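Handover notes (outgoing to incoming on-call)

Open items:
1. Glycosyltransferase involved in cell wall bisynthesis: sequence verified, structure written out, both below. Nothing else pending on this one.
2. Nothing else urgent.
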Amino acid sequence: MGGPMKQEKQGISSAVLHDRLPGMGGGERFAIETARVLDAPIYTMYVAEGVSLPEDVTVIPIQQRKYTRGLSGRFLEWKNEGMNPLETLSVAFDLTDAHDELAAYDVLVESAPLSKSYVPPVEQTVLHYPHSPPRWLYDLYRERLSGFDYPGIRFALKAYAKWWRTLDKEANDYVDQFVANSELVRDRIQRYYDRDSVVLYPPVTGDWYDDGDDGYFVTWSRLSPEKRIDLVVDAFAGLDERLVVVGDGQEREALERKARDCDNIELLGYVDNIEDVVARATAVVYAPKDEDFGLVGAEALSAGKPLIGVNEGYTRQQVVDGVTGLRFESTVASLRAAVERFDPNDFDGDEIRRFAERYDRTTFADNLLELVNRTHAEAASKRSAVNNDTKTVHIH
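Glycosyltransferase involved in cell wall bisynthesis structure tokens:
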């Protein structure tokens, strides 16, 4: 690169720092959209094999060879959906100095929790968009710990988590402005970090539309335990309604076994055209555990489809009962009851889409540009005030 890219309208140079690109999930799509809005490059520790990057965004892998090739790559590349402590530690440590070019940018927008490890120069303005404080350290800590029965392992994990919390909170000192993807994450940032944050909803990308109703319900996401697709499958196993499950992940084989004898449940795996599948659905079902934001819910509403969502996390904010969908508690019986009382004629697709305008890409771009400019101006003003105070002290 020939130096930092300029954000012409604002007259400041910006870059995006995303910890790593193991796939194309919600965090990665956020980083890409942020780079587009700011006309900025993305610096990241590495891009996993098979990840397809858009041609209109510059992505700079900082240590691609270390994490994807040779002996180090075998130990370090993202595995088990991020639960690789060697990889996590290595990425966090490598991010402290990251890349020499990063110091030349006026503003750095950090995406994902580990990117906060970067130590910025004094004059740089840092906005940190964590998506959530690491959940295994905080709100899901007891749940994750309960999965380990051996006392010795539990003790070691407690010590490891306590050390990680210290590192995690130490890095807060490098951040000028925390940015939350929902009111729920804003409250988590306040509770665990004692810092205020600004809510900026991530944008919905893709071509989401309504193309009628082919008489099936759909759920999709990464097939991991927190998404609770098993709850959805169990509920529909006792119903006559059709269910289509889209996605891949560690739970796929278990879900296929559950659905094996259910003619009304179909698992499609990963599909490229999820918008087309949703467009012909009756409604979307979503049951994640205390979801931070819930891009699935936002995408469903952007398509004008009712959302049958669990009454937890930010999902409960996306479901205005009887207007944008129906809520249910996190039990099979409650979800079955919600599906049984659901009537598509009770919902207006245009009204649902109006609700989803808060997730529009244009709204996101306008709000992000305003936030970056304001934060940079305020941070520069504070630094100037500190410098002036220091000079005054020296004079006297």
